[in-house]
From TrEMBL:
A GO cellular component annotation in the UniProt record: cytosol
Record InterPro entries: NusB-like_sf, NusB_fam, NusB_RsmB_TIM44
Keyword hit for Transcription regulation: yes
All residue ranges annotated as the NusB/RsmB/TIM44 domain in the record: 194-287
Domain of life of the organism encoding this protein: Bacteria
Pfam families listed in its UniProt record: NusB
A biological-process GO annotation: transcription antitermination
Record-linked Gene3D superfamilies: NusB-like
Family to which the UniProt record says this protein belongs: Belongs to the NusB family.
Protein name per Swiss-Prot or TrEMBL: N utilization substance protein B
GO molecular function: RNA binding
Length: 303
């Protein structure tokens, strides 16, 4: 959707160039994923440094001398640290920004130390793997993901990350809920695509909407009696064309899945009433296409 919008807005649209940027943007999702996981490691390391400095103070308090090492010894973060694929990826992509941007690590640590779940965690005399896992999950969900300064940092670092942020955060939260010593190697660094067909789908959908623009525009004509085509919001028109493309050119995608997906996208990226408008148009088109036998879905459960 974003790539089609950028292509349409360009003074000198270049299909090949926009395709390359689309895949570049998708690839950056994994960069954000790795950077966010490394943030957990950097917070742990910063806490270890804080502990050492506290204990070396000339007038260290009893609490400082006996500071809990539960966070520092957290087994889940140890699995992240020890994952060679992740660390190699970070090194090769030069993603360890936290060495130069350590003020954000400090901001998040200060927030963490105020939380009751943190105080309860470091007060534990013995910690199980499950408790380590629950702590890291809460750290990510309650401290890192919702932090506005961290969000601003991500936005400033790479603009394309803003839209990836909720998707990546959800992926990390799910992974942290499942990770164990047995599966860490297989789930810590996910694949961007389910398979080669998944990547090809993105390319095919982008090309269909661009190259079949006349056909798709014609399909919308007459379905909006109260709206001229020029009055339909640009983003709504793109979403409609994406949906129509899936109806006509992607036989393995169920009609209902297409409609549901683009309604969710409309709610996120377009006007408050767009989802209702788009739902009405796509429903009309489905009935029309089915009556004229233009929709040919294959496989079970594709209606």
């Amino acid at each position: 959707m974003q790539s089609i919008y950028a292509f349409n807005q360009s003074e000198n649209p270049d299909l090949d160039k926009q395709e390359k940027f689309m895949f570049y943007s998708i690839d950056q999702m994994l960069d954000l994923y790795a950077l966010s996981l490394q943030l957990l490691v950097e917070m742990r390391d910063a806490e270890a440094t804080f502990l050492i400095k506290s204990q070396k103070k000339h007038l260290a308090t009893s609490e400082e001398k006996n500071y809990s090492k539960n966070f520092i010894n957290n087994e889940v973060i140890a699995l992240i640290t020890g994952n060679e694929d992740l660390q190699t990826y970070i090194e090769n992509k030069k993603l360890n920004y936290w060495k130069q941007d350590d003020e954000y690590v400090s901001i998040l640590l200060k927030d963490l130390r105020k939380r009751e779940f943190y105080k309860e965690y470091i007060s534990l005399k013995e910690v199980s793997y499950k408790q380590d896992q629950e702590f890291v999950s809460k750290l990510f969900k309650k401290v890192i993901a919702p932090n506005e300064k961290y969000y601003d940092y991500i936005e400033d670092k790479r603009l394309t990350w803003v839209d990836d942020f909720p998707i990546v955060n959800t992926a990390i939260a799910k992974m942290l809920g499942k990770i164990s010593e047995k599966n860490a190697r297989s789930i810590l660094m996910p694949s961007l695509y389910k398979d080669d067909d998944d990547r090809q789908y993105a390319l095919d959908l982008f090309r269909k909407v661009i190259l079949k623009d006349d056909v798709l525009s014609e399909a919308v004509e007459g379905k909006t009696p109260n709206w001229d085509k020029e009055r339909i919001a640009e983003m709504d028109m793109i979403i409609l064309k994406l949906g129509i493309s899936e109806f006509l050119y992607f036989p393995s995608i169920p009609v209902r899945a297409t409609i549901n997906e683009y309604l969710e996208i409309a709610k996120e990226y377009s006007t408050p009433k767009s989802s209702i408008f788009i739902n009405g148009i796509l429903d009309k088109l489905v009935k029309e296409f089915e009556a004229s036998q233009k929709i040919h879905k294959i496989g079970r459960g594709l209606r």
